Amino acid sequence: MKTKDDFLDGQIILIDKPLEWTSFQAVNALKWAIRKKFSLKKIKIGHAGTLDPLATGLLVICTGKFTKKIPEFQGQVKEYTGTFYLGATTPSYDLETEVDETFPTEHLSEKDIEAVVSRFMGKIEQVPPVFSALKKDGQRLYELARKGKEVEVQPRTIEILEFEITRINLPEVDFRVVCSKGTYIRSLANDFGKALGSGAYLSALRRTKIGDFNVDNATTPQEFKESLA
């Protein structure tokens, strides 16, 4: 059983973030549970890499002195699994916003889909989504996008180390991706659709690994709370 000093000295907690939770909500749930259990006025706690509310999976949460390790964990390679929905696009590149355009998919064969994968391997230029938490002139991009403002987002260099298609059942295509820090899988979905001439958006996403940490070893926020009780 972990003690108050364990959490203050530093712990790494692996959380499997539930669907529709923000990363901030997950951190907050743990913070309140630890504070309540040990009657603490405050405790340092943070996560090593945001997950969108519509994604599930691994959050690495650090407490106490281990919060200093967060930048190190943020820089590690990440693995994701999920689903691209072909034949349509959305402004946010995922299900956060409504479909704005539809495209034919009849021309696509499994061979076409597999062939496009190689275009995204290695170091590539990627434009982050306008619906993202990146800042421009002190404001989050998604705040500007929701106000309907035109936002120019600069491309950045990212690296895709592994990219495989695990299931094709059009309009859905399942994938597994291993990538560098700063990669947006939503942008990958949008670019993948463009490359196929059919449009695509991200309809499901799960983060399975960060460095050596695996979601298989993670607990839900609820399970964490119960373990403290």
Count of helical stretches:
7
How many distinct beta strands? 13
- Mind describing the biggest β-sheet? 9 strands, mixed
Judged by helices, strands and strand pairing, the structural class is alpha+beta
The outline comes out as: elongated
What is the helix content?
Answer: 25-40%
Task: Give short descriptive properties of this protein.
9-stranded mixed beta sheet; 229 residues; single chain; 27% helix; 13 strands; alpha+beta; two-stranded antiparallel sheet; 33% strand
Helices and strands in order, then pairings?
Blueprint: H1 4-9, E1 12-17, H2 23-38, E2 45-47, E3 55-63, H3 70-74, E4 78-86, E5 88-89, E6 101-102, H4 110-117, E7 122-126, E8 135-136, E9 139-140, H5 141-146, E10 156-169, E11 172-179, H6 185-196, E12 200-210, E13 213-214, H7 221-228
Parallel strand pairs: 3-12
Antiparallel strand pairs: 1-3, 2-3, 4-11, 4-12, 5-6, 7-10, 8-9, 10-11, 12-13
Explain how this protein is built.
The protein has helices spanning 4-9, 23-38, 70-74, 110-117, 141-146, 185-196, 221-228, and strands at residues 12-17, 45-47, 55-63, 78-86, 88-89, 101-102, 122-126, 135-136, 139-140, 156-169, 172-179, 200-210, 213-214. The mean pLDDT is 94. It has 229 residues and is α+β, with helices and mostly antiparallel strands. The strands form three sheets. Strands 1, 2, 3, 4, 7, 10, 11, 12 and 13 form a nine-stranded mixed sheet that branches. Helix content is 27%, strand content 33%. A hairpin with a 2-residue loop joins strand 12 (200-210) and strand 13. It is built from seven helices and 13 strands.
